[in-house]
Amino acid sequence: MSNAEFKTAIRIIDEAHAQDPNRVPSSQGEQPYELLYSNKMSEYLQKCDPDASEILRIAVRAQHLRRWEVPRDSYAKNKAGYHLWRTYLKKRQADLAASICLQSGYTEEDANRVAGLIRKENLKQDMETQTLEDVACLVFLDDQFEEFEKEHDEAKIINILRKTWSKMSKRGHELALGISMSDRAAELINKALADQ
Q: Which residues have C-beta within 8 Å of that of residue 93, sequence separation ≥ 6?
């Protein structure tokens, strides 16, 4: 990309991700989790849509913007608490990303579009929103699923996998089935998809 506004927005987003105090090992040594996550999001976007617009690239990169500042345990540990947390995060992250877009020289219309994508408005009808959702699901399956499944019983995991699958497009399904996984993770996915 040669667009100055795009480069500025990505730089500001990555600077925010770099402040994440949660560190994880990577091939480049220990890194802030959200910086590593956002890079994986961008890598999967390249697989899903190599010609993605700048606006979608920014939304994908900013999806978890400053998420560590609102930890899951700041809400009730039940389904309602989880949904309140996720709803608040989507709005907050969308607002932060829109502000960065304006700061970087994008129009208000573009900033609002980035925010709408992060809020996942019109999922299934809007191709860019669907692509962002596919990317998020692919990163979950590739990067987070194997650890996540150890924390929950099999019935809950299968239900989560079915919900994840239902949010994805056909292209997302194709890419998901190509992810290299442990035997246990593959078994759970096969069980989840058996009745689909």
A: 62, 63, 64, 65, 66, 67, 118
pTM: 0.91
Residue range 124-177, pLDDT digits in tens: 899 999 999 999 999 999 988 888 777 888 888 888 899 999 999 999 999 999
User: In angstroms, rounded to a whole number, what is the distance separating the alpha carbons of residues 79 and 81?
Assistant: 5
Contact predicate 173/162, CB 8 Å: no
What's the number of CA atoms in the CB half-sphere (13 Å) around residue 189? 21
Q: Are 132 and 59 in contact (CB under 8 A)?
A: yes
Q: CA of 196: how far to CAs of 116, 159, 165, 190, 191, in Å? A: 30, 12, 9, 10, 10
Provide the token pair at 152.
């929950």
Q: For residue 39, which phi and psi values (nearest 5 degrees)?
A: -65, -40
Helix/strand/coil (H, E, C) string of 67-108? HHHCCHHHCCCCHHHHHHHHHHHHHHHHHHHHHHHHHCCCCH
Place of tokens 């992810």: 179
